[in-house]
Amino acid sequence: MADEIDVGDIFHDPEGYYPPEKEPTFAEHHMLSGQTVRVRLVGSHPLYGDLLWNAGRTSSHYLEQHRDLVDRKNVLEIGAAAGVPSIVSAILGAKTTVMTDYPDPDLVENMRYNAELAAPSIDSSKSSLYVEGYKWGNTVEPLVAHLPDNQTTFDTLIMADVVYSHREHPNLIKTMQMTLKKSPEAVALVIFTPYEPWLLPKTEKFFPLAEENGFTVTKIFQKLMDDVLFEDDPGDETLRKTVFGYELRWAPERLN
Predict the structure, then answer these.
(1) Which of 138, 153, 200, 254 could form a disulfide with 181 if both were Cys (CB 3.0 to 4.6 A apart)?
(2) Which residues bind S-adenosyl-L-methionine (predicted)?
(3) Residues 59, 101: contact at Cβ < 8 Å?
(4) 53 marked as binding residue
(5) By the 8 A CB rule, do 152 and 219 touch?
(6) How confident is the model over 20-63, as pLDDT tens digits?
(7) 36-41 vs 25-30, strand pairing mode
(8) Whole-angstrom distance, CA of residue 38 vs CA of residue 61
(9) Is 250 marked within a binding site?
(10) 160 among annotated binding-site residues
């Protein structure tokens, strides 16, 4: 019988071979009311990063300034990341808020964590906050299942920093068509910063495409932030500091 060869630990990775996984960090969003929303960020996950992006913060402040968009309304956030605008909507009295992002288990679990963390700040007798993984363009049945009274569409859509994904523009618009209530008051808020300014012309193609598919587009603000979010990034610094805001509503002929 051949002698067995002692291979020892040659198939074990040496200690420190792999860098340790980045620990989740926390961030705070300060509402205009003075209330603080604390959320967990998913370490170095490519879809989250470890920062609260300016469009999410600006969207949340805009909702506070226009409470009629969420108060007693049904709200859907598309591409929620840490979910600050969804949480703020629920705090402000949205009847139903559904927080969604790509159906990656880590992302969805983190959204659930943040929703639970925010629960003490939400009046559960008036507002319900739900979390779902959702891939843009797919069936919306799991999202509308949370709506009360057999409703099937939402009053307000929140879309913060999602239009930079140029190839997904058709799927975003498809999701809007399936989820936005056919009402003159229903609105989709599209708010973004051109972190890669040279791609801004491609990003802005979203809006004529939306108009071709039944929506009106209105620019509502252009806000210059104090600092860039990513200091070492290239490109025009002013654009990288700027948050653009648009309202999309159903074109009148689509309401008949």
Answers:
(1) 153
(2) 53, 79-81, 101, 136, 160
(3) no
(4) yes
(5) no
(6) 556 678 999 999 999 999 999 975 555 555 678 899 999 999 99
(7) antiparallel
(8) 15
(9) no
(10) yes
Structure tokens at 193: 């910063």
Q: Please tell me whether 119 is known to bind a ligand.
A: no
CATH topology of domain 54-254: Rossmann fold (3.40.50)
Dmax (CA) for the chain in angstroms is: 87
- Whether 132 and 125 have beta carbons less than 8 Å apart is answered as no
Q: Name the DSSP letter for residue 51.
A: S
State pLDDT tens for residues 109-163.
Answer: 999 999 999 999 999 999 999 999 999 999 999 999 999 989 999 999 999 999 9
Block residue for tokens 């291979």: 7
Structure tokens at 209: 């495409």
The phi-psi region of residue 63 (left if phi > 0; otherwise alpha if psi is between -120 and 50; otherwise beta) is: alpha
Tell me the domain boundaries of the chain: 54-254
CB atoms within 10 A of CB 140: 21
Q: Is 80 annotated as a binding residue?
A: yes
Task: For residue 158, report the phi and psi dihedrals to the nearest 5 degrees.
Answer: -115, 120
